[in-house]
Amino acid sequence: MFERFGDLPLHVLVIHLTVVLLPVAALTLIVFAVVPQWRRLLRWPALVLGVGTLVCAYVAKKSGQAFVEAVPTLAKAIQLHEKRANLLFWYCVIFAVVAVAAFLLLAGVKGDKATNIRPLELVTQAAVVVIAVLVIWQTVRTGDAGARAVWEGQLPPK
């Protein structure tokens, strides 16, 4: 199920979506959390993107495993990439949970005012910023390790 999309390995397609979606979701959630004036506008996009990162990371993980099973000679070359991807997946799980919590806690029922529980709001904002930065950082590290595994030694010297 996760091996191919048409004639292409699914992982090759999914990673491009993941590399764009995760940072966009993280930045959207940061703005939602720290700019109260934007909460009404960003409430639903922040939730959908936050949960979407988990779906995307899951499909990327499963398609990567299927890709390695189809081409076992890659296993050694992608060890670092796989290790970083596993950590990124768990960051995405936490990110999705924090996105749902922010959705529920940072906007009122009408979505136009912040909750009156200031300490809870501050903790939620801090959690959003921390996990969002971790997701962006780990996305870059994971993508870099994957790109190096694929392209190292294949590009002409500078």
How is the CATH topology named?
A: Four Helix Bundle (Hemerythrin (Met), subunit A)
β content, as a range? under 5%
Give the class-level CATH name.
Mainly Alpha
Mean pLDDT: 87
SSE sequence, one letter per element: EEHHHH
Low-pLDDT parts are none
Widest β-sheet, arrangement of strands: 1-2
Counting structural domains, the number is 1
Pairing-aware structural class of the strands and helices? mainly alpha
Helix content: over 70%
Number of E-type strands: 2
- Please give the CATH architecture: Up-down Bundle
Please state the overall shape, judged from the principal axes of the Cα atoms: elongated
What's the tally of helices?
A: 4
Please tell me how large the radius of gyration is.
Answer: 18 Å
Q: Main beta sheet: strand number and arrangement?
A: 2 strands, antiparallel
For the termini, the CA-CA separation is: 40 Å
Please render the helix and strand layout as text:
Blueprint: E1 4-5, E2 8-9, H1 10-34, H2 39-70, H3 79-105, H4 118-151
Antiparallel strand pairs: 1-2
Helix pairs in contact: 1-2, 1-3, 1-4, 2-3, 3-4
Describe the structure.
Strands 1-2 form a two-stranded antiparallel sheet. It starts with a strand and ends in a 7-residue tail after the last helix. It contains 4 helices and 2 strands. The chain has one domain: Four Helix Bundle (Hemerythrin (Met), subunit A) (Up-down Bundle), CATH 1.20.120. 75% of the residues lie in helices and 3% in strands. Helix 1 runs parallel beside helix 3.
List keywords for this structure.
two-stranded antiparallel ribbon; Four Helix Bundle (Hemerythrin (Met), subunit A); mainly alpha; 75% helix; 4 helices; 158 residues
